[in-house]
Amino acid sequence: MSQISDFDAVEHFWCPMLGQTINFAYCRQAQEGLPCNRVLTCFAPHFDVDAFIQEHYTPEQREQFLAPPPSRMDRVMEALEKNVKPAPEDES
Ligand code: SF4
User: Fold this and answer.
1) Among 68, 19, 3, which Cα is nearest to 28's?
2) Mean pLDDT, range 46-73, rounded to an integer
3) What is the CA radius of gyration of the chain?
4) Is 71 helix (H, G, I), strand (E, B) or coil?
5) Contact between 11 and 22 (Cβ < 8 Å)
6) Does a structural domain hold residue 91?
7) Percent of the chain with pLDDT over 70
8) Within a domain: residue 48?
9) Is residue 32 part of a domain?
10) Is there an atom of ligand 1 within 6 Å of 49 CB?
């Protein structure tokens, strides 16, 4: 059984989100303490990241952090829904 920090020093040569070299210590905590949703793709060439994820995260956690991020349109719609107040009810 591996420790959660065993691969922390492994570097991915180029993070497409940050535009720099990054190590696994960051990537495994990138989403509010859970791994980045791209972690399987980025780290597959470096070690058996799939086995690591299976070992250290519950199915519910995996479902949560491996889900694709909301699209730009989803984020816009969510922001609009939060900021639009419902019209007052017609009292006639
Ligand atoms: S796993 Fe996420 S944070 Fe890490 S290198 Fe890939 S895209 Fe960047």
Assistant:
1) 3
2) 93
3) 19
4) coil
5) yes
6) no
7) 95
8) yes
9) yes
10) no
So what's the pLDDT on residue 13? 95
Domain coverage including residue 53: 11-83
The DSSP code sequence of 31-46 is BTTB--TTHHHHHTTT
Helix (H, G, I), strand (E, B) or coil at 75: helix
Give domain status of residue 92, yes or no.
Answer: no
Query: Which pTM value belongs to this model?
Result: 0.78
C-beta of 36 in contact with ligand 1 (< 6 A): yes
Q: pLDDT at residue 89 above 80? A: no
The per-residue pLDDT of the chain, averaged, comes to: 91
Domains in the chain, number: 1
| Residue 22 in contact with ligand 1 by CB distance below 6 A | yes
The answer, yes or no, to whether any atom of ligand 1 lies below 6 A from the CB of 39, is yes
Q: Which two tokens stand for residue 63?
A: 């479902």
What pLDDT, on the 0 to 100 scale, is given for residue 90? 66
pLDDT at position 28 is 97
Q: How far apart are CA 21 and CA 19, in angstroms?
A: 7
For the CA of 36, the nearest atom of ligand 1 = 2
